[in-house]
Specification:
Blueprint lengths: L4 H16 L2 H17 L1 H4 L4 H20 L18 H18 L3 H12 L4 H8 L3 H21 L3
Helix pairs in contact: 1-2, 1-4, 1-6, 2-4, 4-7, 6-8, 7-8
Length: 158
């Protein structure tokens, strides 16, 4: 199976950004992920390339935290700012902020699952391979995450 770099680059970047909450570091980790991926040419011809890319990215993010001794950065840099904002932009901004805040209250594993499924639009099989859990576990955890998120948003009057 051949994967398109252009299609996967943004997904790996979002994943790294989710882990480190810093644009520049996420860009560096994404670049390094693809460099390591292509240095392992023996793996490219066999196996599951998406799972391998995410495994490399995950390990690089872990290494980043080990080197910098950063373990608490979950709520940093949640949203950007804009200069020209109209009412529709404000409504979208508020909605996104409320959803991001609600998601940030979930356990990290469930946040990661939601990112892979909805932001990166990965299939259940791909997520199961990346997270090294069964498809049934992915379904179960995804349903749990959505139920928790729904309850949190309901409490917020959303």
């Amino acid at each position: 199976m051949s994967i398109s770099l252009e299609e996967q680059y943004d997904k790996i970047y979002r994943y790294c950004y989710f882990k480190v909450k810093n644009k520049e570091i996420a860009e560096d980790l994404t670049q390094e992920t693809f460099l390591k991926y292509f240095n392992q040419t023996s793996y490219i011809s066999r196996g599951k390339p998406m799972a391998y890319l995410y495994t490399i990215a995950k390990n690089l993010c872990i290494d980043f935290y080990r080197k910098s001794n950063r373990y608490e950065s979950l709520n940093e840099e949640m949203i950007g700012s804009g200069d020209n904002v109209d009412n529709d932009d404000i409504t979208v901004f508020e909605t996104n902020f409320i959803i991001k805040q609600a998601v940030s209250t979930l356990p990290i594993e469930l946040q990661e699952l939601l990112l892979l499924r909805f932001a990166n639009e990965l299939g259940i099989n791909e997520i199961a391979n990346i997270m090294k859990i069964s498809r049934f576990s992915v379904y179960r955890k995804l349903n749990k995450a959505l139920k928790l998120l729904k309850n949190i948003l309901r409490e917020e009057g959303f």
